[in-house]
Amino acid sequence: MSEMGGAPAGPGTDPSRDPEGAEMTELGNSDAFAAERERLEGEVATFKDKFLRAFAEAENVRRRADKEVADARSYGISAFARDMLNVADDLGRALGALEPDAKAKAEGALKGLIEGLELTERSLQKALEKHGVRKLEPKGERFNPNHHQAMFEVPDESVPSGTVVQVVQSGYVRGASDRPR
What is the reported pTM? Predict the structure, then answer.
């Protein structure tokens, strides 16, 4: 029985009685600890790798979502904007159909109607510009087949060859061209 009372101590459990056994136990424990440490370090490395990959994937998903939201904001109203371009063109054609003399001589209700149409056209242009849609007037510019659409060629000796002399339908741009100019 041990001095403290209780069960007798087994061989190799009391270092003061069996120094060789204690040394063997310590060596065995250090090998076991080293093996356990290696296993745990491997698990830590595996979990760290999984964490880093999951984090990178989450970051990629966030970036893709941000880009999709930005694209949706940018191009979400494209169809509506194209429809509004037709309205802007119709207002411009309505005002262009008036002879300058008739416009200058207009009185009363007709003058109010003309001014109202002009105001509406300006307001529509401002609203389109507010949303990044700009009207372009290429008249007098050199013809560029990447940006302009030629309907016909007009011989005009007063301008260099290849110059846009008449615009049939104005073009509009919003980032990329919404409609050929």
Answer: 0.51
Give 72's contacts (C-beta < 8 A, 6+ positions apart).
Answer: none
Provide the Cα torsion 124, 125, 131, 135; round to 10°. 140
Residue 169 burial (CB count, 10 A): 15
Digit-coded pLDDT (tens) for 86-99:
888 888 888 888 88
Neighbours of 117 (CB within 10 A): 15
pLDDT in tens, 56-81: 999 999 999 999 998 887 777 777 88
Placement of tokens 């060789």 in the chain? 20
- Residues 153 and 113 sit within 8 Å (Cβ to Cβ): no
Distance, in Å, from the CA atom of 138 to the CA atom of 134, rounded to the nearest integer, reads 12
